[in-house]
Amino acid sequence: MAMLFWGRGLRNAVTKKAMQGVQLYCTSVVSGRERVNGVDLFYQQTGKGDHAVLLLPGALGSAQTDFGPQLKSLSKDRFTVIGWDPRGYGNSRPPERDFPLDFFERDAKDAVDLMQALRFPKFSLLGWSDGGITALIAAARNPSLVNKMVVWGSNAYVSPQDVKIYNAIRDVSQWSERMRRPMEEVYGAELFIKTWEGWVDGIGQFAQRPEGSICMELLPQISCPSLIIHGEKDPMVPSFHPQYLLKHIKGSRLHLMPEGKHNLHLRFAAKFNKLVEDFLIQ
């Protein structure tokens, strides 16, 4: 199964050559670090629009590995786009990443506090995979700060089926070298293994909570306009998850991409970007 997707929010075989291409076409992207909740959080920013948008990456992800096409191509006149590396991921190290039961809540607070520190009084959220879970929590906890939200490849609870999926990809030695390489370039082989296994254990612990809840109880508190996107060929996120979000987030809408997998925003970047832009400017 690991050959069919780029992990839980892991990127689509981003090679060093491809990343060099990202750096070339993102020449208007500026990088910085902001001290937030005791951690120096790394971020990238591009565009000059009035509408601030925060990109939230997936597990072990970063702005550059997860959102190259969005940093490049989302309208720089309409939007100011900020991508961040959550604590312990990418360039927001130290600290090493850990996965206490509240790690999504911690990421949500870090994300919101980062945007406040960067002086964006209101902003929209684009969250992929784990980043989508973070976005759900951030939107629920901060209704006065969030304009709109887009999530894809995300879930509000962990089912027994999910646990089987996670355990099936625990051993990265079973991954192809093409899939391991990008993460090993970021973390080194040993730390990648340690952090990935920590994530599998971390996400799995929610299965022990009532109904496997990550943030089920928070969904009714989300009041911003919300778009849920789902790739119908996503092997990581069964279709009952976006349906659950649609049912429990008031006024939300669901867009299905028949050929989309977990990395649909990378594989179908132009279509995805237009869908998101149209939603954000409505």
From TrEMBL:
Origin superkingdom: Eukaryota
Source organism of the structure: Salvelinus namaycush (Lake trout)
Alphabetized GO MF terms: serine hydrolase activity
Domain AB hydrolase-1 per the UniProt entry, residue ranges: 52-177
Lineage, opening ranks: Eukaryota, Metazoa, Chordata, Craniata, Vertebrata
InterPro entries, alphabetized: AB_hydrolase_1 (IPR000073), AB_hydrolase_fold (IPR029058)
Record-given protein name: Valacyclovir hydrolase
Keywords noted in UniProt: Hydrolase
Keyword Hydrolase appears in the UniProt entry: yes
